[in-house]
Sequence to fold (503 residues):
Amino acid sequence: MPDPVRLALAIAAKDIRAELRSRTALQSALVFAALVLVVFNFARDPTVLAATDLAPSVLWVTFALAAMVTLNRAFNVERENAALDGLLLAPVPREALFLGKLLANLAFVGTVELVTLPLFMLFFNVSLGRALPGLLGVTALATIGFVAVGTLFSAMAVRTRFAELMLPVLLLPFMVPPLIAAVQMTSRLLADRPLSEMWGWLRLLALYDVVFVTLCMMVFSAVVDE
Amino acid sequence: MTGSSAQAAGVVQRGLVLSAIGLLALGGVYVLALGYTPVEVRQGLAQKIFYLHVPAAWSALLSFSLVGIASALYLWLKDPRLDRFAAASAEVGVVFSAIMLTTGPIWAKPIWGTWWTWDARLTLTLFVFFLFIGYLGLRAAVHDPAERARFSAVVGILGMLLVPFIHLSVYLFRTLHPQPIVLKPSAPSLPPEMLTTLLVSTLVFTLLYLGFVTARYGLALADEAREEARDAA
Amino acid sequence: MPPEPPQNGEYLVAAYVITTVILTGYWVALWRRGKAIVSGKGKT
Fold:
């Protein structure tokens, strides 16, 4: 019985390969993200609202919405191919299955975020410079948080009626704490504030991730098994 | 009517009677709140909304916590009674949350000058409301009872664990909400008439919670009894 | 002359009315669903 981590990586790799072939989730999400950024840019009055005030919120709303689009598409593709059923029949530990799905989803959402970031810099004329490593760290932590819950809920949502509606309705409240923390930290990072001002938010993010990744992994079986 | 259906009807009736008593008692609370308590000088008459808003908030949070606990227990014990109870508690919780979310802004407007603020308590109440709605929406969207119970339980547990994080998030901001003047370790700083009325109101709201949940639980039992009868036929 | 409390009675009335409506409305809804079982028709 291969060790669960290797199993998870194998599952993730399979999903990623499948997505690279079809590119459905990535394409929709990228187009969506670019669109959101453009709309935000045209919607504000540059003489009234400075880009730096609005920028962190815009960035994170974009990331959050793109993540939801990605998660939805990814699981829909999965359901259409009935790939999950095959995996479930095999004696794969559910935790490994969840971890594999999580890693794949993180790769998808992470890709969208990495492409969105330079677009964001371009449209909002924001230079990241020294803030970049911190920003990447915050992005990684926040994304882990909402993709963990998102992976669990999308597995549930695809089994319900109104799946497209169910995922956002269920997921949005859970995205709020990591989003608030991420926006607060992004805003301070861009303003070059010292780490001491972000410490509380960072701890909240880390705690959120630990609690919810563990919890989602534990209850995943209740969702996919009869 | 089949035996189990009659039993269910009995439960519903008990619940209705209990909550009817609660409603009458609520009338008594109104009398206390409007007549017996003094008018607060700085806040005026609107302060008396407090006697409804705070107990409604307690009940909503009670409902919510019980949904979370019942959910966790269900995943462990798989007892369908726990699932039925969770569904009942969620529905009743939505009712109390609705009261909280309407009386809250109506109180806030004359006192703080604004309908809404994103402080700890109001934000938390809004989130609990959304979580309830999501929970009930999910239940409506899943047909198979066992699957519905499992999925609801998952959302219930996650929802319960989300609450401290919402609280923490908002705490890291400055809060506008009045400091808790009832639950301080030393004597509460409310005049005795206000404290008494508040406690009585809280009891009445708890009674309403119990009555409503019992009735709602009975309705779920009746639904299941009818499904069984139909399947057997 | 003691300070006058602000005149905001209409908010009080609104809140108490809404609360009453919601609670009695819910009771009535439960009661009607209960009646539907006894007569054996309709979904609760």
Summary: Chains A and C do not touch (no CB pair under 8 Å). The CA atoms of residues 10 and 33 of chain A lie 29 Å apart.
